[in-house]
């Protein structure tokens, strides 16, 4: 067993926040209740959030929808609207239009059948391989937000800082490739079992300890 640092304060925080965390997880939209376009909106949100605040990613989706750009706008107009809202707006405009082409068949989106084709772990892998701008972290986030993948770790900066704090990892890596991501996820899963907090709940608990609120 790993020599974890004291988890007493973590467990205390969990007891205080458990009900709110579970409500938040329950509030994530279920795939069977979402339209194809709503699922794509969640993917767009996860394309926009890297390097930017989650609140800004959400704002970007709403702004593009309001101006009828999310599903139909060209790359130039999307980038122009994303400017000042999210970082790397040109790249993210490109990623969005490429993802749209990948999942749009004719006039209709066909993303739900892609998601339902396999186990969430395998779907995550396929998303990371086929959708530019979506890595393992973003794919995990996307699947969590549509009610799938509660056992997937979303290894953003907030989570990694907490893993280091409790000695689950010794250092925060400068970059995380596929193998490294899976290794870190295994370590977080082991810690989740050790503290007896489901990994999806532990994720939100860590996130709230860094940001002060439960959001993503």
Structure characterization notes:
- It is built from eleven helices and two strands.
- The protein has helices at residues 8-27, 36-48, 54-66, 75-82, 89-103, 112-116, 120-130, 136-145, 157-165, 178-195, 199-211, and strands spanning 104-105, 108-109.
- Strand 1 and strand 2 form a beta hairpin.
Give me some keywords for this one:
216 residues, mainly alpha, Endonuclease Iii, domain 2, Endonuclease III, domain 1, two-stranded antiparallel ribbon, 2% strand, globular
Number of domains: 2
Q: What's the CATH topology name of the largest domain?
A: Endonuclease III, domain 1
Distance between the termini: 30 Å
Q: Architecture of the largest domain, CATH level 2?
A: Orthogonal Bundle
In the CATH hierarchy, what is the class of the largest domain? Answer: Mainly Alpha
Give the SSE map.
Elements: H1 8-27, H2 36-48, H3 54-66, H4 75-82, H5 89-103, E1 104-105, E2 108-109, H6 112-116, H7 120-130, H8 136-145, H9 157-165, H10 178-195, H11 199-211
Antiparallel strand pairs: 1-2
Helix pairs in contact: 1-11, 2-3, 2-5, 2-8, 4-5, 7-8
Summary of the model, kept short:
The protein has 216 residues and is mostly helical. The chain contains eleven helices and two strands; from the N terminus they run αααααββαααααα.
């Amino acid at each position: 067993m790993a020599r974890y640092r004291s988890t007493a304060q973590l467990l205390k925080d969990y007891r205080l926040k458990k009900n709110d965390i579970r409500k938040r997880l329950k509030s994530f939209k279920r795939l069977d209740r979402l339209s194809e376009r709503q699922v794509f909106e969640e993917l767009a949100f996860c394309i926009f959030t890297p390097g930017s605040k989650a609140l800004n990613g959400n704002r970007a989706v709403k702004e593009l929808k309001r101006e009828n750009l999310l599903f139909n706008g060209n790359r130039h107009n999307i980038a122009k609207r994303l400017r000042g809202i999210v970082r790397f707006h040109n790249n993210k405009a490109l990623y969005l239009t490429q993802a749209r082409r990948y999942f749009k068949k004719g006039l209709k989106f066909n993303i739900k059948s892609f998601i339902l084709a396999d186990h969430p772990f395998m779907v995550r892998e396929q998303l990371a391989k086929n959708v530019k701008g979506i890595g393992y972290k973003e794919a995990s986030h996307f699947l969590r937000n549509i009610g799938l993948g509660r056992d997937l770790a979303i290894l953003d900066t907030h989570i990694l800082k907490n893993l280091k704090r409790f000695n689950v990892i010794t250092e925060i890596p400068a970059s995380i490739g596929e193998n490294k991501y899976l290794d870190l996820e295994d370590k977080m899963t082991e810690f989740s079992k050790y503290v007896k907090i489901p990994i999806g709940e532990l994720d939100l608990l860590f996130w709230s300890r860094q940001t002060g609120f439960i959001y993503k």
